[in-house]
Design a protein that fits this description.
single chain, mainly alpha, Four Helix Bundle (Hemerythrin (Met), subunit A), two-stranded antiparallel sheet, binds zinc ion
């Protein structure tokens, strides 16, 4: 298990999340993120600072987090001692993979990917949720499948706060 108890950025506590909480929290965070994208309008693709992602980039990152976590969950339920695929969060942005993403497309995709993740989590048995795996080569901590599901909630809520923070910086 990870020895990280709470996120230093947003205070999220992984152990506080029960599997039954995951669908509702994922849906609420996604719906709120879609609202931020709509509210931001022309501000959505703008970086408030050079080294800070735009709202579109945060949304695209979260979309890829949903997909990556879903694959990790599936891998860990099938393989013993699975190692999750690293997301390379900055590398994929810097390599231009988000360059053609727009507020409209990522808003749609976030709703799809959050549903893909929450439906995968909803199928898991208590035994599957308790299985351990290595999160990724870049973050080689031992976690459970349930922890990964909670991480889906965390990433969604944490980056929703980033997106709202961008909005406050761009349209004070
Ligand atoms: Zn956080």
């Amino acid at each position: 298990m990870s020895d990280v108890l709470s996120c230093p950025g947003c205070g999220f506590i992984w152990d506080d999340v029960a599997v039954r909480d995951v669908p509702g929290r994922l849906e609420r965070a996604t719906s709120a993120f879609v609202d931020v994208l709509a509210t931001a309008g022309e501000l959505a693709p703008i970086r408030p600072e050079l080294d800070r992602w735009s709202i579109v980039e945060y949304a695209a990152h979260l979309r890829d987090v949903h997909l990556t976590l879903r694959e990790r969950v599936i891998l860990a339920t099938i393989l013993d001692d699975a190692v999750g695929t690293p997301i390379f969060r900055d590398e994929r942005v810097n390599a231009g993979f988000y360059a053609s993403d727009t507020a409209n497309t990522v808003a749609h995709e976030l709703q799809v990917t959050s549903q893909l993740l929450l439906r995968a989590v909803a199928t898991l048995s208590p035994e599957q949720l308790a299985r351990e795996f290595t999160y990724s080569p870049a973050s080689p901590m031992r976690v459970t499948v349930l922890w990964a599901a909670a991480q889906g909630v965390h990433e969604s809520e944490h980056h929703l706060a980033d997106a709202r923070d961008n909005l406050a910086r761009l349209a004070p």
